[in-house]
Structure formats: C-alpha cells, structure tokens
Design goal:
21 strands; 431 residues; alpha+beta; Glycosyltransferase; two-stranded antiparallel ribbon; 3-stranded antiparallel beta sheet
C-alpha cells in the first residue's frame, strides 16, 4: 500500500455519501520503490511508442500499432499510415517527460519537436486553424472522410503548449507553437448566431456536425483553450452554457453524463484543477468520485471483476472499437479490462489504480505487456489479448502516471499564461 497523505480519501468518501461537498485532496503520493520502478517502466515504454511510431519527418503519431511489433527488439514503424492528431498531442507532452527523465537524448527530442511543429504550422491542412482528426502519416493528407475535430485539435494544442512551456528557451519552438495556437478561430465553432456551445466538428462535404459540446465530459479543455485565446477568444459566458448533469451511484454523487471513464481524465492531464473550483464544482474531486463510482460499478457487475481487476473505458474490444464502461452500463461488458482506465485515474485513486496496474502486469504480462507497455485491452477468461496499442490510450497513461509521481505535466502546462487567464475568466478560484 502507498504511504501517503491520501488517507483522508476514505473519510472524504464517507462525507460525500451524506451529500456534502468534497475538496481536492493532495495530488502527489508517497510511492514505494517498487511503485516507482513500475511507473517508470510504464512511462519509459509509453514514451518509446511516441518516439518510434511516428514519422521522423512530420512528427505525426500513428493512431495505433501492433502491440507485439517490437518483440524482436527492433521497434520498426508499423506499416499502417493513419496518424491521429490527438495521439500527436499526447506524444508531444510525452516527449517532454522523456526529456525530463532522460529516456532519450535531448538533441533527438528537440529535433523531433521542431520537425513536428514545423509540419503542423506550415504543411498540415487546416480549416480556420482546426485539423482533421486522422491524416496520412507522411503527407498529412486527410484520411478518408474524417472530420475536422474540435476535441482532437484541442488535445494537439495542449501538447503544443506543453512543449512551448518546457522548451522555453528555444525561439523556434516558441514562435511555431504560438502561431499554431493563435490562428485557431474558436468562434467559428459556435456557427449559429447567439449559440454559446461549441460544435464538435465539420466536414467539407456536409458542413458542421450535428453534435455539440453541451454537457460535462472531456470538453473542459476545449472551452478553456477557446476562452484563453489571445487572438480569437469566445466569451467566458460560454463556460456556463454547457450542462452539468448529476449522477448518483452506490452513494457517490457527482457530475457526469452517460460517458466512459476517460471523460473524467483528459482535461485533467494538462489543466491543474486541484484545490480550486468554479461556480459549479471542484472538478478534481469530481473525478475522484467518478473513479470510485466506476470501481464500484465494475465490482458490482461480477464478471470476474475484483479489487485488482477492474476498469473499462473506450478502447478496443473483441468485437471492435467500443465506447464502453459505466455507470450506467454502456456497451457489451464481457469481463474485459482496459488498462488505461485505471492508469488515467492514477492521480485520483493512487492506491486502488496502482494495485490494478501492477496486478495486471504480474498476472498477464506474458501476453498483455510488451515494448510499449500494456496492450489496449484484455480478457484473460476468454484468452483474448488485444493485438494493438493505441496512441491516445498510452498517452493518457503516461501523462497521468507522471502527474501522480511529480505533477510535472500540470506544472509545465500551467506555465502558459493563456491557461491561467482562461481559468480566471471561467471563474475558478482557490478553495
């Protein structure tokens, strides 16, 4: 077990069962040497994916790669060509971790970051500053009929702002990163006069998508990036335009839609919501509660789930890619576990999530653990282990592992003045 200040979690959960507010707990845990060794191995392997499964010229990162691609030790680039701008965004942040921890030479990382920013600033097609979700790895051409994506562009921008803050002495990185962020025309996504919620995306064939970012989920990063923009901001009142539905499960009351667990993780990988709240919630505490509720949901399902085998989020499954999880139950839950579900919640429930992570490797590492860490999902009872790893799932795992250990991503990203300004404009204050 971890020796740490998080001992008040149990008391906090009991308080919440009586419907009283919960404040953000301390975010850093005191880890054992064994915990540190495991997390360091997880991060090192995840960072290796972003170094090896990316174009050496464009810096774009593959959406997925074979989990066992490198068992021979050579780490060759997967032959698939579909790059993901979200994976690239997570990858840029992971490169900062690799630089900080010495997983790769500073010179190589600096060169990769510069090449990535040059390509995205000068060559990758964009519309009003927003990028297509998937692109050809080497040319940047739009992949099939993929959409211009507001959330995936936002994840990319978070990675870009992270490298700008980390490599603060590099003039080229500063110029390119700032140019990419500043050219994004956020009001374009409102697209309807008087509308205050942002559209999810756009296609040249059919125009704006019908979906809007109108209820709590991973959307916080989109709105904060838009509100904090020094060139094309949206009005801060848009922060109050999306709903915050209430969820109650097993005595835990928290804000959430009927969405997978990752929605409580993505914005938290970059923006530091600890010890502060807006007019509506303490979102860090909310993610703690959402993770606790998810753990209870899994354990109540049975289906082989135990205290060291739980966690489901959007991922591959035996039946294709699935947005699954709960509560409430979503998708065909068959006893599979998705490692990034607990890895992405490491700062929220360190003891519980680390126990799962270490148990998965100890018990199923022969089939589920490879050059880049865990395969995307596994179901040992069905003798199924995913053949692939996914960039976004490795990304959230690496970033949140580092945030648990040191808070490095939070500290780095929040050095961007736009991030602080955005949270002030949205009404955040210390508590």
């Amino acid at each position: 077990m971890l020796r740490r200040e998080f001992l008040k979690f149990a008391a906090a959960a009991a308080v919440l069962r009586h419907h009283k507010p919960l404040a953000s707990p301390p975010a850093n845990a005191t880890l054992t040497k064994e915990d540190e060794a495991f997390l360091d191995d997880l991060e090192r392997r995840g960072c290796l994916f972003f170094l090896e499964q990316a174009s050496s010229t464009t810096g774009q990162v593959l959406d997925r790669a074979a989990a066992r691609v490198a068992d021979s030790g050579n780490g060759k680039l997967d032959p698939r060509r579909m790059a993901s701008i979200a994976a690239t965004g997570f990858g840029l942040a992971a490169l900062c971790i690799a630089d900080k921890r010495g997983y790769e030479s500073h010179a190589r990382i600096l060169d990769r970051v510069r090449r990535t920013l040059r390509f995205h600033a000068n060559q990758l097609p964009h519309v009003h500053g927003f990028f297509y979700h998937f692109n050809d790895l080497d040319t940047g051409a739009r992949f099939r009929d993929t959409e211009i994506s507001s959330i995936d562009t936002s994840i990319l921008l978070c990675g870009i702002l992270t490298v700008r803050a980390h490599f603060h002495d590099d003039a080229e990185i500063q110029q390119l990163a700032t140019a990419i962020y500043n050219r994004v025309e956020w009001p374009w996504l409102l697209n309807i006069p008087g509308e205050q919620t942002l559209c999810m995306g756009w296609k040249p064939e059919s125009g704006f998508l019908k979906g809007r970012w109108n209820h709590y989920c991973e959307l916080m990063m989109i709105y904060l990036l838009a509100i904090g923009s020094p060139t094309h901001p949206i009005d801060p009142s848009c922060w109050s335009a999306w709903s915050r539905p209430k969820m109650s499960y097993a005595g835990f009351d928290y804000i959430s839609g009927s969405d997978p667990l990752f929605v409580h993780q993505y914005s938290h990988a970059f923006f530091d919501f600890r010890y502060q709240r807006d007019a509506y919630a303490d979102y860090f505490a909310n993610s703690i509660l959402a993770t606790r509720a998810h753990e209870s949901f899994c354990l109540n399902l049975g289906k082989f789930y135990t205290s060291d085998y739980w966690g489901i989020s959007s991922s591959d499954s035996q039946h294709g890619y699935a947005a699954w999880g709960g509560p409430p139950g979503e998708g065909h839950i068959d006893g599979s576990v998705v490692p990034n579900a607990t890895a992405g919640s490491l700062p929220f429930l360190p003891d519980e999530c680390l126990r799962v992570q270490r148990a998965l490797r100890e018990r199923y590492g022969k089939y589920a653990w490879g050059r880049y860490g865990f395969c995307d999902a596994l179901n040992p009872n069905a003798q199924w282990y995913d053949a692939d790893v996914l960039g976004i799932d490795l990304g959230i795992s690496v970033l949140m592992a580092e945030n648990l250990r040191t808070g490095f991503l939070w500290q780095t990203f929040m050095r961007n003045p736009e991030a602080t300004i955005a949270m002030q404009r949205a009404g955040f204050h210390k508590q």
